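Quick entry, no commentary yet.
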Amino acid sequence: MQNRTMKPNEAISIELKALVRLLDDPDMSVYNQIEERILSFGEAAIDLLDEFGSACSDLELSSRVETLIKSIRFQSVYSKLVDWKNNEHSSIFEAALAISAMHYPKMDVIALRQEMDRITRDVWLEMNEELTPLEKVQILNHIFFEIYSFYGNKGNLSSPQNSLIKDVMESKKGNSVSMSILYLEIARRLNMPIFGVDLPQNFVLAYINNESILSAKHRVLFYINPFNQGIIFTKKDIDAFLKQINEKSRDSYFQICDNRTIVKRLLHELTDSFFALGENEEAESYQKLAKAIE
């Protein structure tokens, strides 16, 4: 009788099941080896661990399973951010989706991308080459803020939901960073020269003169505040804002920042939010993610 050849996925499943059954080993050196091997399977191990954890009545074993699942999910998001950092053409929106997956591992990423496609298409349908930069921004503002009803959440600034892009897209509200990320994604897809400006206690955007994009010194035509319905403002308004919050003026407050700075700022917002809620473990996870893009 001929032996049946085992498929790779089947072999992995059999090994994982055997390893999971050994997770209650009291010898920590043995457990550490088992843990290391399970972690090496990555996301392929999550469903089996979930199933095992749900059926488990042993609290210590359940805790071990939960820790393993969190570690795998963290490493998955960390790896995605490293890949994002190494791809100069990656969108900030994709980085924000990866970060949201830490909190919502089963979120419908395809549906969120499709929603962004719809918003962008509706803006594109109103655009033409004859429009001035100001007119283009007015159209984007009309579609994004009036038709799709997005707005800055001024009522609960410390909520992590303001920074998790899944929540922002579903609730239509967010903080200055998350609102800017969505606005930037639409602009990027439409080849509009709009970039982030990292301000203290706020985050805004700058519309750059097309001719200055490739130069070392970018010429800002005007600034945009997505947290406040896309209102247009100038350098003088930034000066006034800095005086209002008693912040010393710096050149960087008037210049555009790179995408990595924006993603770091988003992670910083999430870290602060979870620390404020007393969810220190969650906060520290987002803090560690920032190292992926350094």
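second:
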Amino acid sequence: KLTVNAAPEPIKKGKTLTVTGALTRANWDTEKYAGYTSQPVKLQYQKRGSTAWSTVKTVKSDGRGNLKTTVKATADGSFRYSFAGTSTTPAVNSGADYVDVR
């Protein structure tokens, strides 16, 4: 699973936006989801009205699978995280979080 949350919303143009999330995968021994650590995950942006996603930067998940980075707010649009997958874990995209830039 992959989640995303961009805050604060709404935000003034030029201000710093914090984008958090978490990358987890099933642990079949415990039958629960656990953080997937030290994995590269792309932060992607889609400008309002566009269908294309562009990669802003790559973030590495921490020791608990958490993701956190900052970007400058430039225009209305959506952010998502994208994980390319590994030999044991499939690729996944988070949902999108729309940000209103004023």
